[in-house]
Design goal:
Number of domains: 1
CATH architecture: Roll
CATH class: Alpha Beta
Shape: globular
Largest sheet: 6 strands, antiparallel
Length: 159
């Protein structure tokens, strides 16, 4: 059994703000669910921004021996979602509704990690638009990405 099969289920504490959740994930070294399976983790967050890393392994390979584009796309989604999440109040949630990924340079498997830095470039009460850069540790640009994230209000209590 691989280590990633024993990861805890994903958890989102709806009693905390999105920024508090992101900061607690970072403090705890929190990795679970899909992000854990990919070896992706949050390393920094502030209001409207987040940074994630992905420890590159051979299982991230595509058939030509590079890091699979889906790994970078997932990294864009996770970083953008977390940057948007830092804007929400307790009880609110987020949902990616559009994701774009532009592959600029290949990521070789011998790169130590990929780093995704996301910033919210626009937001209102219903949506956030995020821009994401994925680089290697030397700063070489691998991917430019973006996401439209829906900011969903807290569920109303049922009578």
């Amino acid at each position: 059994m691989d280590d990633h099969t024993r990861l805890p289920a994903f958890h989102f504490d709806r009693t905390k703000s999105g920024l508090e959740v992101a900061q607690s994930w970072i403090e705890q070294g929190y990795v679970s669910g899909f992000s854990g399976a990919l070896r992706v983790k949050p390393v920094w967050a502030e209001r409207g921004a987040a940074r994630f890393t992905c420890a590159v392994e051979s299982r991230h390979s595509n058939f030509v021996g590079l890091v699979h584009g889906g790994v970078a796309a997932a990294l864009v989604d996770m970083a953008a979602g977390t940057a948007a999440m830092t804007l929400i109040a307790p009880g609110e949630t987020i949902l990616t509704v559009d994701l774009s990924v532009r592959y600029l340079n290949p990521a070789p498997l011998d790169v130590e990690e990929l780093i995704a830095h996301a910033i919210v470039s626009y937001h209102d009460r219903r949506k956030a638009i995020c821009d994401v850069k994925v680089t290697d540790p030397k700063g070489h640009l691998i991917v430019l990405g973006g996401a439209h994230i829906a900011l969903r209000p807290a569920a109303k209590a049922k009578p």
